[in-house]
## 1
Amino acid sequence: MADFRITTLIDALERLRSSRLLPPAVALLRQHTTALLTELNDSVVAEVPAFTESRDPVTLEQLAMHGPQHHAEIVRLLEGGPVGNLGFVREHARLRAEHRFPLEAILHAHRCGHRTFAGWLRQGMLLADPPAEDARGFVVGLADFMLEYTDAIGTVASAAYAERTRQLAEAAEDRRAELLNLLLDGYDESDARVAAVLRRAGYLEGRQTFCVVLAQSVDATEMGSPSRARRLADSIDQLLPQTLARRLIDVRDGMVIAVLSGMRRTSGWTAPAASLSARVARELATAGNAVLIGISGDVTSTSRIPTARRQALLAMRMAGITQRVVEFAATPLPQLMIHLAGEELQRLLPSWAGSLYDADDKLAGVLMDTLRAYADADMNVLKAAARLSVHPNTVYSRLNRVSEITGLDARSYHALTDLITVADARTGTKTST
């Protein structure tokens, strides 16, 4: 307890002890202990909803035990005992912190105690039928003592609560870091200690689906600021509904990383839920233009989470101005292959690729658009023309132009595959830069 709290409490005690009306007041506290404690407990439960809303029987049990501790301490002090360190207050606050009970409710309970004890002490004083002047002096001294006592226990409780909350947060951070390391880096499935850690955290329960999300600011230098990186992590956390998935979220290696898990199905007889990664992608679509996000595909085992992390990293690297959120499972395989090939693919492109790019630029992109529409229409010229809102002869003309430039007939499956790959290679390069 702070020194100034001890000093002011001692001063208030000395003034109150000098009153000849204190002994009969304390005697009433001793004689009617059960009634006083019942009134105290009932008033706290009635006035502080948190005690009943918590639905934690342990909280109410410990509240019933805490009242007698205050009764014994107040009687001890008023009968001449020295001011102690209020260890029972400190321990109660630590227990409430462990149960995530609000500090404001604890302090409100202290105010209820202030009123209850002061009321019984005044009643005991009045039973002595004192002169008015003595009664006024006692009431003033009692008010000072109860105020200082309530302030003292509030200070002790707040400090103990904050310290225990900090310790719990650090422990939770350590557990989260350990879990993330195990899940993301992989582990030996025969390691009993690791299995125990994952089992306690619920990651070895059956019928679960996992996916990994990676996020980074468009301006990568912002991730070097711990506060900005943490804000991004918090925003990702807030965008995902609590009912969607359980999550482990942290900032590491200049990225926000999240391991999400949800039930694939409630039992072996029920249909599987929709893809977790697809549902996550829908929620993160509103993340805004200042962030790039990659989402892995679903995996059904913790042993596959390292693979999911690599998928999410690849997806995030494919994100860009035109597509801020990339879902690995929804990305076509050729696009993935082109991205992985990177600059090496650019060096291996056929000699006619540059001429095709130049001609397409001069025609405002219609050659590439026609090749993609023709492929999407399963090489049906009429359907491709409808997609492009042009005459079929226009499609034939553009395909012939491509053939003149490249020497490849786009109406051949293998030739069309090569042409689309070259077209996508240019798009992929632009997107990733």
Note: Residues 132-185 form the longest helix (54 residues).
## 2
Amino acid sequence: MTHLSNLYKSAFLKLKTFEDLVTRRVQILLVGLSVRHLHGPKKIAYGLDELIVVCVVRNGRPYIKSFIDHYLYLGVKHIVFLDNGSEDCTTDVAVAQGQERVTVIQTKLPFKKYEFVMKQYLISRFGKGRWSLYVDIDELFDYPYSDIVSLGSLLRYLNEKSYTAVVTQMLDMFSNRALFDQVSQKDEPLKDLYKFYDISNIKREYYRSRRGRRSNTVANDDIKILKGGIRETLFGTNFMLTKHPLLFFDGEAKHKDHGLHNIRNARVADFSCVLYHYKLVDGFRERVAQAARQETYARATHQYKKCHEVLEQNAGSVRIMQATARELGSVNELIDNGFLIVSDEYRRWAEVEKEKRTASS
């Protein structure tokens, strides 16, 4: 009887997986049919040592200039924005700022229902057989020794090792001043205004502790899943900080669970990277209230409602700056304090890259 029960359970799970796959493919098709091209090339040719950034955005006006400046300076080949009906000139600023290195497309499908599908659409359309980086408009990516290792060299390292994904940790950035309640409609110099971080309340979990991650091959066991951080300190709700946004889309490695936090069938690199996360910025209270009220982020509704509740109990503001906060000097200090992990092999390789750069200058 138990054997038959297990067979039925296995058959049901396979059927559900198949149905979910069909549904997801239909939804991706619907997103593709709904997309309208606004600016830039529709097809982007780039090599295995070049990177494209893709981003779903709605009303990202305060972030857009810092976002584009950061990624073009980092050395990305191209940026693709999928605008979801912005009403604050986001697309106009993106076009003016990025010119020929930015593509803007648009869909007005409901974000709450199609959030993850939109991300899958961007990765599958622009990233097949190559490296792509999916980030939110309030996330700025960086990697160990980026001061001496070019982005092209980094991707060549990943290719030589046959890696297909990189663990990336979210680091909440904030200011040492009180935040304004109103959402800014101007260009926010994010890295200048929000220089502080706090890793005193970080919890670490063995990477393979969840079943979904066991299909991955991880090159460095020192890399952990990180949770918590300053938002948990402030609002008392657990936040997952680990993502896998840098992906080589080979048809095997795939994100799961409706987001980029988990991945399957990936060969995970031997170092971790960082996403500077600008959630705790001016207008935070207003954004939280709106997300909690409209339940914009289906899988994070509880967290937003908890944040909103704490803000309301504290007259709309909380003291972000704790005694354990630090001012960020460079990405490399995150290696020294253990937030980021690098293997000995990656460290030696970076030293060789530094010698090459010195010799050629």
Note: Residues 11-19 have pLDDT under 50 and may be disordered.
## 3
Amino acid sequence: MLLKQITVERYKAYGDRCEFKIRPVTILVGRNNSGKSALARVVPLIAAGLLSGGNEPLPLEAGGLRHATTLHDLITNRAAHGSLAVRVEWEHESVAISLDATVRAFTTDPGAAPLPIVETWTLTHGANTLDLRRHTPLDPTQADYSLGPESSSSVRITWEGLWPRAHDHDFSDWVRGIREIIQGWARGVRYLCAPRAMPVEPFRTAAPMAAHRVDGGHVPMQLASDETLQDAVDRWFQQIFSVGLEVAGMGEVTSLRLRRDTGAVDLAQGGQGLTQVLPVVALAVATSSRGDGVDLVEHPEADLHPAAHGDVADLLLKDRVASGRPLIMETHSEMLLLRVRRQVAEGQLSPDDVAIYWVQQDQGRARLQPVVLHRDGSVDNWPDGVFYEDYDEILAIRRASRQGEAS
């Protein structure tokens, strides 16, 4: 099950239709507050809706991420009775699968939280289609849907997240089968936010295995329970930082320690950079065993010296195409992007495996501008002002130097 594209419309700053094509490696760059994080976080937002058994089609808080306070916050300009539309496209065993949904925020009291109403919903698998259209979009007391835009058949629907449950009607077997496949994909969505959490130490080794956390707080217990993962992370730390990472047991509690020739210290004493990159490394080295899903990482280079940015990129990109798990990165690192371009130029990646998007605001609306990457690593459509601040500073220094010489 491979994610191919997500399309949003009237979602946060993306008021216009925005098609977000996903490649094995997809990179979002742009200035602060341009809309990068909002676009990346729509993936776990949709995944939460696909897994939810509640009455929120798009759960506002799930998996450690808080997407909004009310549904209005997800809709462009917080429009009263406004709606947003999402479309997700996958490929499974060479067959296209898509899910479209339009969700409206209905409210009778300006001071009350809006009621989410699914207006339209379409699931497609190859030649099979299930299409639901709500008869009375602005009447929350009615939940009757027609089975298609021109159908006279009507069914009563309640919603389990983004999935319909019909009263007195049994959907086809293919719908139930595709739901299981899509939910399997949704369970494989892994998101790491920035900044990431400092490990809580010492921790109880006998405690239950922690579920994935967006702040990386699950990693200490993950390392303590998986020797293969622990060894892989340890080798990478030794190779890149010349320090080892060990799980040190002390009775019923355990801590993470950095191992040097002069002795060992707690990871928390090793600096922010190593702490911030640890969850990224753990996620990357476990990619091949994750199965269906997608990995999303905010600023994998956070708090690291630029000399290590390329090493982090190499780790995240390793076996990415073969794994079948796309990687979506949000970054401000020029060095990381240069390493991606270098891998393309050296033939380790195909330019068709990489999508780079410049995210920008245009009259208050976010837009994606694809950056074209060629086989020699060169790029077209590179927008002005991306990573050129250093050149501006160099020019300013030279001007100041010439003025000093002239005086």
Note: The radius of gyration is 24 Å.
## 4
Amino acid sequence: MVFVAYSHRDRKWLDDFEEMAAPLKKYGGLRPHSDKDIKPGEEWRRRIDEMLRSATVAVLLVSRHFLNSDFIMNIELPAILKAQKERGLEVIWLLVSHCLWEESPLESLQAALSTSVPLKDLNETQCDAEFKKLCKAVKEALERPALDPAMKGKAVTRKAENLRVLLRPCARRVEVFARQDNSADWYHQGGIDAGNQNLTCYFGTEKTAPNTGFHIIGMTTDARVPHQGGKPTKPLPSYRQVSDQMRVIRK
């Protein structure tokens, strides 16, 4: 799911983005949230946290109105940055109009598109092209598998049941492979279906020496990887997106 943060005064840009992003609904759709959605008495921090927990990507439509909103700057944006730090939420932002974004927390975040010319200064055809680029960046972020950093150096048993492999729920099925130190052979562990993070993985045999390292990767593919019957996967399948490797230690 894609969480979209914007000022209600920039509704036009949200509408344009939603139209361009319509084909991405198969990944869970968009959840736009505006500072105009505030209702008296609502527990906003809890509500925002709940929505962000189910999001894979956050898109920010940045303008002077966005930066001038107390709600966005004091509640929404801090919650988004917290989710980015704690669970790897992908944050993508683009410049809608000229503003002092360099004087905000966005200064340390890479913008999805060039900040030299905001959308407001482009014609309709140019805006469509920029929104298409944005949608491609969102699609890549939705598909990109990210391994849970808590696995780094983790002590695991031969059969690691319900191991949390992914940092965040995946938007596509992720095929998981593992290989032993000093070996080029990758063994298919199975696939993690969309929306899930955990998988039971097998590391070595009963004869595997303690403190042996195993490397894990995850990748999205165009076709499911069939059961390998205990044999290494040679060659690895062609992939759409692939994660960084993570190393665990066999007990």
Note: The domain at 2-143 is CATH 3.40.50.10140 (Rossmann fold).
